[in-house]
Design goal:
homodimer; 215 residues; mainly alpha; Arc Repressor Mutant, subunit A; Tetracycline Repressor, domain 2; 11 helices; 0% strand; elongated; disordered N terminus
């Protein structure tokens, strides 16, 4: 978030009207996301994105240096918003079970809200894309790490406080399992389908909290 | 499997010795798999694969028509073996809970046995790659469908027989969650790391069967 936006909010001032330039950039980001989702980042060309946005190649290059910049623009805000959600869930004043429910629901809702931006990011292997040594890459790796750590902290806390049954459970493996279950939805979950993200979050939370076996 | 191999097995005849040609092809498949895993299929070039296998471009093209054929060669056997494992687990004469344990362990072991072939396949989005209308693509879609169906059948059976607590649970969503948990390991699980596939399978099975909450 930039400072101008923040102070506008604080002062109750209306958001500045988006310029034609901003609108065109937004349109291009939206078009790029759809093509990335269908073809994958590596196979997508600037021509593909132009065709989808009904702009020619030169126009695309007027707004963005290339598909990499489009991709980054697309994931920046969504990713950091998502990390804040996870850290908020982890620091709630509630038992671990509630924190976990909150986080799973928050994550699935985030995928829907930022559809298909965050899913494209998941699909493209965030860590591989971030390993280019750029400042952006480092920031993304740090955000990913913070997200994983928030999930880990909730599981670890539940095992420690006795909210979760412990024995010899490894919180890292459990956290990886839960994250995997949610992230894999990028392959099959359709936000416009019959199942809502709230309903799916309930199924996943019940599964990892209560298990399948009769109690 | 081809008929010659089958009858050799039945007759107790030794496997035919691999020719230099077969060996070179295998080497190339192995090299391609490593590069696909690191860079992704779309970003990988035949030159990359040649460099990794220490062969020049022309030599690669002597053995394979291109990276697509290398990819297919890589996943064919592993994928169908994996489907047979899942269908075997689903038809065991045991309660659903045992079938599910068997399937989760079988799948994770399969990822290790065929490392990194199956992981590359998972990473590259099997369904997207198979949608090229080719006979190979259709066969892969059918295999994927059979795998998913085996998991679905186990969950559905458990809910029906009362081995799993049912209420209003949707077996499709539960199956998708379990498959996601396992498939996501392609992003983080290192078969040469400290955790074995057996240990990981135990953690995942305990998680989905017993849940995290104290009983």
């Amino acid at each position: 978030m930039n400072i101008a936006k923040n102070s506008a909010k604080r002062l109750g001032v209306a958001k500045p009207i988006a310029t034609e330039y901003d609108r065109r950039r937004e349109e291009l980001v939206g078009a790029a996301a759809m093509v990335f989702k269908e073809k994958g980042f590596a196979a997508t060309t600037v021509d593909d994105i132009g065709r989808r946005a009904k702009m020619d190649r030169a126009t695309v290059y007027y707004y963005f240096r290339g598909k990499k910049e489009l991709f980054r623009e697309m994931v920046n805000e969504a990713t950091s918003e998502n990390v804040h959600m996870a850290e908020r869930a982890a620091s709630l004043d509630q038992p671990a079970r509630e924190k976990l429910r909150e986080l799973i629901e928050g994550l699935l809702q985030s995928y829907v809200k930022h559809y298909p931006y965050l899913y494209v990011y998941v699909q493209e292997d965030m860590l591989r894309l971030s390993k280019d040594g750029s400042a952006w890459g480092k920031q993304m790796i740090a955000l990913n790490h913070r997200f994983d750590h928030a999930v880990f902290k909730i599981v670890q806390e539940g095992l420690k406080t006795g909210d979760f049954s412990s024995s010899d459970r490894d919180p890292k493996l459990i956290a990886a399992g839960i994250i995997g279950m949610c992230n894999w939805t990028h392959r099959w979950f359709d936000p416009k389908g019959q199942v809502s993200s709230t309903e799916l979050a309930r199924v996943f939370s019940d599964l990892v909290l209560n298990g399948l076996l009769l109690r």
